[in-house]
Amino acid sequence: MKVYKKGKSRNNKLFIRVFCVITILIGALVFCYTFFPLISWQIYFAPAFASQKIDAPIPSHTVIDPGNISNLISSATTNMNTDYTNAYNWYPGYGTQKNLKADYKISIPKIDIKDALVSNRDTDLTTHLVQYNSDSVPPDEGNSVIFGHSTLPQLYKEGDYKTIFANAYKLGVGDLILVNRDGKTYNYKIESVIVVDPTDTSVLAQNFSDSFITIITCTPPGTVWKRLIIKARKI
User: Fold this and answer.
1) Where are the domains of the chain?
2) What is the rounded average pLDDT for all residues in the chain?
3) What does pTM read for this prediction?
4) Is 114 helix (H, G, I), strand (E, B) or coil?
5) Lesser CB count within 10 Å: N end or C end of the chain?
6) What is the homologous superfamily of the domain 87-234 according to CATH?
């Protein structure tokens, strides 16, 4: 009987240890998912945006204010339950009635993007960039809004649309975007780079005064907390 009790006691201790290790690992994963993008933002991306006079999308007080921690965790949980490979989920309820077919390619030399397909045939961001609106197509007049995924730069893979805009934070005013449509190439120069809340739909506004491209992706890289807006005009 004593041997049985001793063995049972050892099993209980082993179970408690394993349970504690699993709990710690889960806690560490939640912490990394929530705060690693903030830390990487401060170390790597804030300096790049600061040089372009862009405000940090995650204010510094967010990192240290305990009142925001629960909001960050809640936001992370919500984001995990939303399929952001479907462009429709970025701005549910918005968009234009389809009447123009968009199928063209863009290249961005500064971040090594070559002949990336842009289309409005569907909203699948894993197979191509998505033109969200269908009332204008470059190089014609109008604001053509293009959605694309981003992730942490170290996860970037050439040709993978799930990581295509991982280095978009490096773009600045004056950089070029090349549009190839029907065998002809058109040059667009970036005029502005801003960061907005994901609920800000003003960036979708149409403008027929000239030919514009608006690229929208998530920021900081690796999160969906904010939107990086890159606007270019045909030159």
Assistant:
1) 2-80, 87-234
2) 80
3) 0.72
4) strand
5) N
6) Sortase (2.40.260.10)
